[in-house]
Amino acid sequence: MDDIVIVGGGAGGLELAVKLGRFFKKSDTNVLLVDKNRTHIWKPLLHEVAAGSLDADIDCLDYLALSQKNGFQFQLGEVVGLDRSAQTLSLAAMLDEEGNTVLPARTIAYSKLVFALGSVTNDFGTPGAKEHCIFLDSAGSAQRFHTQLLNEFLKLQSDSNKDKLDIAIVGAGATGVELAAELYKTAELLKAYGYQNVSSARLNVSVIEAGPRLLPALPERIAQKVAHELRELGVSLMLNTAVSEASDKGLYTKQGDFIPADMSVWAAGIKAPEFMKQLDGLETNRINQLVVDRTLKTVTDNNIYAIGDCAHCIMPDETKVPPRAQSAHQMASCLFDNIKREQKGQELKQYQYVDYGSLVSLSSYSTIGSLMGSLTRGSVFIEGKLARIVYISLYRMHQMVVYGKLKTLFFMLVNRINRRLRPTLKLH
Ligand SMILES: Cc1cc2nc3c(=O)[nH]c(=O)nc-3n(C[C@H](O)[C@H](O)[C@H](O)COP(=O)(O)OP(=O)(O)OC[C@H]3O[C@@H](n4cnc5c(N)ncnc54)[C@H](O)[C@@H]3O)c2cc1C
């Protein structure tokens, strides 16, 4: 009997678990998904959770319920180690909020293992960053940011001595710029909900970027347009500015300046989780990602695969597959085929990353991006409503893999109804 264990139920791992679970439902192959959380929220939505435009409690998916419907099993637990010769994974003991043991440390046996653990924020060892900046890399941190944001706006509303709310965002990648725009929307909505002293004019968001321009991974034209939109909103863009230290009062730059901040967010880089650096001899790169070949198998162990942000995969043109939701989605599809092929003794497929373009959503103000494809013959610039539809369709594709088409349609309907019934902003 085969035991396929997938660790990490995110953009890539959950899609793979659902596909494999359905495929092997009536066979003697077990598919087990392990995640440290009980629920899944699609990570590109985290800046919306942070700003309050999305309620994670409504949009999250329950792993246990999904596992029952799709023929896989689910175990709650945090993976902390691996024994390749025994073919077992170690899970940490699970504690409740008071520190009492709910489950002791355990091991799980596998015959095939897939790492899909995603990534965490990389602060590059900057002093004070871990203590004083919020890392927007999990649903928990996004929710903590949201609570702190509401508290800061409440102080602005109530404290006549407080002139402005200063928020500093380190990193002008998609996460940083999208969050900046969402924050202005939050300020506007709070005013509409009765916070008369709150307005976007009293919000001061700085986006600090070490490089010469924002959105370094996207075409120049998109970066320019986004920069223009953000400046119109009132965002201060501080380019060529490297942060050297963070404190509870703000950020110090390498140039010797100080940027005051009531809240600081670090969104400047990613790495695979720290424990992956030492995974029983599996080869990793300098940001802890597991080195895989193009079949998505680790180069060290024939029974272990990696997909998504925690995988280091190089394409024939020497480019590295970027840490993006579309990469995780494509890798999950490719690995699904390869696991089936392997069982049938067939040759494995070579993964090819296909870039379908990039879109940046600046809350309800604007959506800007480019589409790539054979029909467009290269990159086509899009913005406005069409761009917004394409942006949302990435999430809908993820929902369709997990729920199927009909249920996704129901969810879209429920979303529309909720927009009428519930506050536009999560107020708690
Ligand atoms: C705010 C934000 C906005 C983004 N916007 C976009 C976008 O617009 N477009 C885009 O393409 N990409 C975007 N991304 C990147 C995208 O979210 C990731 O590339 C994608 O989610 C990676 O998928 P994954 O399956 O590798 O990992 P993830 O989706 O991160 O899932 C990893 C899973 O592993 C679990 N896990 C982690 N450690 C452990 C452990 N030790 N034990 C057990 N379980 C564990 C986690 O709970 C999680 O469920 C964004 C990211 C962020 C943070």
TrEMBL record:
This is NADH dehydrogenase. GO terms for molecular function: NAD(P)H dehydrogenase (quinone) activity. GO terms for biological process: aerobic electron transport chain. Pfam families: Pyr_redox_2. Belongs to the NADH dehydrogenase family. Its cofactor is FAD. Residues 3-332 form the FAD/NAD(P)-binding domain. It comes from the Bacteria. Keywords: FAD, Flavoprotein, Oxidoreductase.
